[in-house]
Fold this protein.
Amino acid sequence: MSVLTCPEVEELIDLHAAGACDAATDAAVRRHLAACPDCARARREVERLQGLLDIHYRAPEALERLRTRLDADDSGRRERARVLPLLRRAASLAALVLLSVGLALLMRPSGAGLPSAEAVAVVWASPGARWSESAGAHAPRGAAGPEIALDAGELWLRVQPGKCSVKLRTPAGVMSAEAAECFVAVRPAERKGPSAEVRIAVRDGTVRLTNGQGEARARSGEVLQAEAGGVPRRQIEALALRFGRHYQPVSLKGRPRIPTQPPPGALAWVTNYAALAQAFHLDPSAAEQLRASGFVVLPGGGEHELAATYRRLQALELPILITADTLLHVTRGHLDQTLHSLEERVLLPDLSALTEALLHTIDRTPPPANSETWQAARKQALGYLGVALRALRPEAELPRDVDAAAVAEALTALRKGSGPVHVRLLGRAIDFSLHRPQGHYAGSARLRGYHAAMTWFSQAPLLLEGGPGHLVAMDEARRQTLAAVLLAEALARTALPDGRKATVAWERIYTVTAFFTGLTDDLGPQQYRAALARAELSGPNLGRLTDPSRLRALQLELVKQTPARDTREEPVQATTPAGLLDRLGPTAGFRLFGRRLVPDTYVFDRLTYPHIGPPTRTGQFTYGRALDGRGVRALPRGLDLLAALGSERARELLHELGDDAYAAGDGAPGYPEALAALRRQLGGFDDVDWNRNLHWSWLFAMKPLLAARGTGYPPFMTSPAYGTRSLNTALASWAHRRQDTALYTQPGALETKVAKMPQIAPPRGKSSASYVEPVPELYARLLALTRMANKGLAEMGVLDEPARQRLGALEKLLSGVLAIAEKELANEALTADGQKLLAGLLERLDSLAAAQGPRAEGYAAADTRSVATVYTDPHTGQVLQVATGLLDLGLFLYQQPNGLLEVGVGPVLSYYEFKRPLGQAVTEAPWRRLLAAPGGPERPTWTRSYPSAGKGAP
Amino acid sequence: MATVTPDERLSHESADASLVARCVGGDRAAFHALTERYYRAVCGFLYKRVQQPDLVEDLAQETFLEAFRALCDGRRPEHFSSWLFGIAVNRCGKWLRRKRLPLFPATEPPEAASVPFLSLAEELEEQQRLHASLEDGLAGLPEQTRQLLHLKHRQGKTCEQIAAEVGQPVGTIKSQLSRAYKTLRARMSSPE
């Protein structure tokens, strides 16, 4: 189209804003607008009308959605208010607020059970600090808490939970806090200079800062600042807030209304009994289980793909039931596939370019001072990057100053996944055995390289503290800290060959992985840079870092930025700031990409020695002997996680298995009390808290499987055996996801007889899906999670079209399944559309599975076999591994709305857990061999409590 | 409704105040009434700031949710509408800041927590006036045209899809829509 005049554009402008012009007109209008400010201004007015029309027409539905969300929020609040006594409620709300920063909040001391000590403790004051305590003297009416005045210097304060509010007056504002820990620093006003300033680094709890200009609040990991006469401000890590925004709960329609029915007198009453009998020769005990409990799980026939299993089931002429296991597995597979594709397309190239650019920056820049210490630190920083670069690109050239032999040595250990091995570059031993590539990482040389580089950056920190009782000598830790400083500084001023800043690439890698697995609270480049600035060591002052007192100042600044991780439930004892370094743990230091702490690991940590008292019996799964010969709860087990998430059935099973037989003692609570405390903490979170990232969201989605079912559900769902079966399903899906995310998250084989697969008769005609296991809450949460993944990754600009389409197809499948499950529970017959949807489910599953076909050698996201190490116990030298294997078959008895009883068949996931000696964890290939071997691996005994005595048929 | 007289504003505010009081007392329906009253205005205000229709619903939801939680916790704002718009301002601010990948450098400019001084009452009036004149304008359009707008803006259909659905040529649909937009704009910009 030729050049347009202003009147012509005026004519077209509305359609243009409405996106209704053809491509040529669209381009011509754009060209005109780019050159004509008047028309461009007019166009903005036109856009406003478009926006208003969208709002106007979409408002009724949007209001409906808002109302649903408000109602859900309100119900949640009412429920919590009813259940939690006031004090615990206060504690859990504080925890809730902290959650978005990561797992740090879980590490806070609980408010419950604290002795009535002083409301506030000044743990430490900087030399020369001017402060005074005036207990309640100036407290305003109604708030009779103690007051502290700080005019200059720094205080480390701990305000005990469950006590009154404490006020701290500064020249720039008044801080108030309840149940919090923070550092408060005041810089007094200078004559003719800047006015007084206060800065509060919050390590735990929530703190408020108020002055005449306004108010600001901050929570763990955040910082408040104000100048006298200025508005209080807050620094936040915005990612925590950003992810949660993508989660929109999917509301459920209707209530379960299936009439309660006693079990049938005999299976012969079932309408498709003849087909059932023909397909499976059920032994009497299995048949009785099916009749009495409404379902039975039969050992499968060696399938490890859902699509193949469903295809074989179609030949049985029995109605097919779409199990919850199926949807969990398909959703998990899609998340894994999405991560896999992002790693290949986006993260690996970014990491490679970032590492190389940083290496060149440090190589080209002389160190801040020409001392031997700085030269050594520079060489160490180069070596640190060299290992990762060679892992990513084996042919890459390294700068001359790199100790090539040391790099090669470290790289070999890393690639082999060696057990504890001395790494010369870092002056200490590191255990890589828990970080061998599994799942999609094992399949290609490039991803194995990415896995090795990421493992190096997250598991091999440059240590902050050395000396007696630490992993390295004091000198070595100082050198490593200087090397970390060089890396952090280099990151801030490096550009990549494509013109992007290195920080942009770093952020993208961190953001995407944090979205999948969670934020880190390890120390990284951000914290080191901020600490340098606070200790006034940035830029030209950097050279002064070799002065030990300056280095100590930097370390202290780093500690302040680290959220509290006190593990004992008692008030913090007065200690020195240097003592704080010990509380960070021996491996605190710089990681280019930090480890992600996940709630499962936290639960396991809290339910094992030394956080649990001594055993009252021996021989149970979790029992072990520490090096000093004492019996301890050495390892957790999967049921611990489910019990902590609220499952009563898991709690009962743990009791039956003796895994709760640990009493209070040695300064630790007994198992029952520790579990109750965990349940209180986790129970205080609402769905917004649970959906800060996809890993948390997955645990949240599993929760409906843990609830006991009452009336209104099909009979098979109300039996205790079904409760156990649901635990098996939840754990199997969780175990597989742990393998998928093992690279970013933190962390023996038993034998039994192999389950025999029923021999399935040759195809006679195809049956189609006729029932969906009705767990709508689960499907709604999986749907919300999938949408969150789709929206979140799209906003980050990293999703390509095929990935978007795959997630879109999954959304469709899940919403279809959700709608059907709701109808089933409402005991309504499916409409023609519903039936069509149900009939098409298998096809949809099939095409989703086809999209999940093998992408890397020997690996397919749809494969049901996985193995992951989820816990390491240094006291007994053992690890807990969880695994999934071949599919079983479930037979489910349900009633159609017309009253007829029918049996449907569908695949069920299998779950395994076992202990192994540290360094001998089972990896994927041996696990698959073990699964295929006659006699195969043994399931946990508790899964046997649901029937599994089926035999092959015809 | 071109402008709001002081009397009208007072009566609005006293109606708001009684709804707020009911809401603080645990009456959820009262809050639903407040959402009905202010939803479109808040959305219009948010749209003006973020210019992304898809984002507006998210931010509006967050705004109302935050307001709802605060009322449930016993907060009694003096002027509900200004207070609500204040929350919307904050939500926008947060979003606008999030938009720049805010992780690095760690010493990024701190977030101002207090609400910048704005005449929120004027904002509200402006939004209410706009929505009222839009509604008047729509009421003045032929039913057939309103149907087209419905298909376009509620169902998000393209002109081609609409043409197929109503059985008319695409060109006719486009010219009808174009005329309707121009009529509505003229209506909204004239201070009646």
